[in-house]
C-alpha cells in the first residue's frame, strides 16, 4: 500500500538536438547530497562514475547495451520520487522509496531507447529500455566498475565457503584456478574499500527481462576493473533490462538491510496476498535415522510424520516440510506415491492438527508437466512447494514463481537457484531460496566462518533457506543420522549459535532441521526460536559485522526486540548498546547464551538461559564461546 507519494519533476534538459549542440554530460545527486553520479558521452559511448562525499567510489566506467554501438543523447530530464510502501512480509513493515532519477532518451545505432539512472542515499542503479522498432536479435548488457586500488573482494562460491578477503590479484587467480572451465564471479561481489567502507555489485528486477541470462561478473583486464554481463535475446517489441545496482554501506551489515534492491523491483503482481503466510517449518530430511529417547527411529513413514505434526501443533510451528521420497516415480501427469507412508493419512492428520504442509519436488525424477504440477500440489491441500534441481534458468524460474502463485502456493527454490533479487516484492509467494550452502548440504562440513560470510554476502540478494537450528549437535557429529556429515565431527557450532542463526538469516520460511525430541530436550532454549515472528518484522538492523568474524542482528516486531549474535572459532565479546529501546520504559530480557565451558568442537551443547531487566542505553556484553552465539528476547515489562 502506498502511504504517501510526491513527485518533483524538474525540466533539467529537454532539448531538441537540432536546436543546440549534442548533450553529453550530466550529474545526479542523491536526496541527501552525499552521493554524486556523473554520466558522460565519450567518443559516442556512455561513461559514468560515482563519488561518495569527497571520495571516488567508482572511477570512470562504461555502460553498453549493443557491442561497440554509437550512442546519441536526444533529450534528458530529472525527477525526484519520495513515497513509502508496505511489503507483504519482510525485514521492514514500511519501506521508504526516495531517489532522484535521470532519464536519457537515446539513439543507439538507430535503435530508440532510454537509460534510467537512479541515485539513492544508499546506492545507485542503471537500466536500459529499448522501444518498439527494428533492433538486433541479441543484446549484451554490459557494465564495468572501476574499483579503488587496494580494495578487498568477497563473493559467493556456490555450496562452498564464500571467497574472500582477496585482493584483485587473488580474485584473478580464483577465476583462473579451475583449468577445465573458467570460473565466474557470483553476485553479489562485495567490495571493502581502502577506507573500510563497503559496496556490493548485483542486479535487481530480473522479472521484467525476458530471454536473459543471469548477471555474470568477471574481471575486465585492467587493475581494479570489474565487468558485468547479461546476454539477451530480443524477441519483444519493447524490452526492459534488469537494474544494475551498486549498494553502499559504512559496514558490511548495512548492505544486508539495504532497501534499494527491493525498491527497484516491480510492485506486486498479485491481486490478493492474504494466503501468503511467512513462518517456521519443521523438516524431515536431516532427521532420518535419529533414534528418539523412547526408542523410536525416524524415517520416511507415516508415524514419523505424525510426530513432526504433533510437535508443530503443540509448539505453534506453522509448517511441516516433507522432502524427497514421498513418491517413487514421476511420469507425465502422474506421481506414483511411495508405499513407505500413507500420504493421505498424513494430509488428513495435519489438517486435523491445523498444521500446514509443504512438499518437495525433484525435476530429475521425471517431467510431470509444470502447468499441471502446481494445481496438483494445490489439490493435495499443500501450502507450498520446495522445488529442487530447476536449473539456473531465468525464464523457467520466473514462470515457476508465477504458476505457483496462480495455485496459491509458496515456493522455495533448492539447489543453486537464480538469485532473483527483489522478486519477493513482485511475487511475495517466492518465500525463500537456497542461494547459499545450507547447513550440512551435500553432507559437507559447515563452519562458523562459512555462516558469517554467507550472512554478510549471499544474504544481500534476499532471503536464504539455510536450515539453521540444529540442537542435537553431538548426535549429528557422531554420525547418528542417515544424512549427517560424511566425515564425523566436522560440523562446528553451539546450540546458542544455532538459535541465533535462525534470526540472523532473513527468510520468509525458517526451516529448522532437527528432530522434535531434540528441541523438546532444550525447551528453554527453543523458546527463542518458537517466539520469532518470522517475516513479520517492523525494523531490522545489523549492529555489528565483520565478514568471517562476527555478526549481530537486531529485529523488532511491535515493541519486542530479538537480537542474535554469532562469532567465529576464535570466540569473543560484542558490546550491544540498547539505545534503540524507548525512553522511560522498563523491559524484560531473556538471555540464551554459551557458558564458560561451551566450545563448538568439544562441548557444543552447553548453554544457559537467564532473565533480567534492561532500559534504553544499557550495554550488554554478549560473550560467545569459540564458534558460539548469543540471543536476546526483549519485551516491555507489563
TrEMBL record:
<dbReference type="InterPro" id="IPR013785">
    <property type="entry name" value="Aldolase_TIM"/>
</dbReference>
<dbReference type="Pfam" id="PF14509">
    <property type="entry name" value="GH97_C"/>
</dbReference>
<feature type="domain" description="Glycosyl-hydrolase 97 catalytic">
    <location>
        <begin position="286"/>
        <end position="434"/>
    </location>
</feature>
<dbReference type="InterPro" id="IPR029486">
    <property type="entry name" value="GH97_N"/>
</dbReference>
<keyword id="KW-0378">Hydrolase</keyword>
<dbReference type="InterPro" id="IPR052720">
    <property type="entry name" value="Glycosyl_hydrolase_97"/>
</dbReference>
<keyword id="KW-0106">Calcium</keyword>
<dbReference type="InterPro" id="IPR014718">
    <property type="entry name" value="GH-type_carb-bd"/>
</dbReference>
<keyword id="KW-0732">Signal</keyword>
<dbReference type="Pfam" id="PF10566">
    <property type="entry name" value="Glyco_hydro_97"/>
</dbReference>
<comment type="subunit">
    <text>Monomer.</text>
</comment>
<dbReference type="GO" id="GO:0030246">
    <property type="term" value="F:carbohydrate binding"/>
</dbReference>
<dbReference type="InterPro" id="IPR019563">
    <property type="entry name" value="GH97_catalytic"/>
</dbReference>
<dbReference type="InterPro" id="IPR017853">
    <property type="entry name" value="GH"/>
</dbReference>
<feature type="domain" description="Glycosyl-hydrolase 97 C-terminal oligomerisation">
    <location>
        <begin position="536"/>
        <end position="634"/>
    </location>
</feature>
<keyword id="KW-0326">Glycosidase</keyword>
<feature type="signal peptide">
    <location>
        <begin position="1"/>
        <end position="20"/>
    </location>
</feature>
<dbReference type="GO" id="GO:0016798">
    <property type="term" value="F:hydrolase activity, acting on glycosyl bonds"/>
</dbReference>
<feature type="domain" description="Glycosyl-hydrolase 97 N-terminal">
    <location>
        <begin position="28"/>
        <end position="267"/>
    </location>
</feature>
<dbReference type="Pfam" id="PF14508">
    <property type="entry name" value="GH97_N"/>
</dbReference>
<protein>
    <submittedName>
        <fullName>Alpha-glucosidase</fullName>
    </submittedName>
</protein>
<dbReference type="InterPro" id="IPR029483">
    <property type="entry name" value="GH97_C"/>
</dbReference>
<dbReference type="InterPro" id="IPR013780">
    <property type="entry name" value="Glyco_hydro_b"/>
</dbReference>
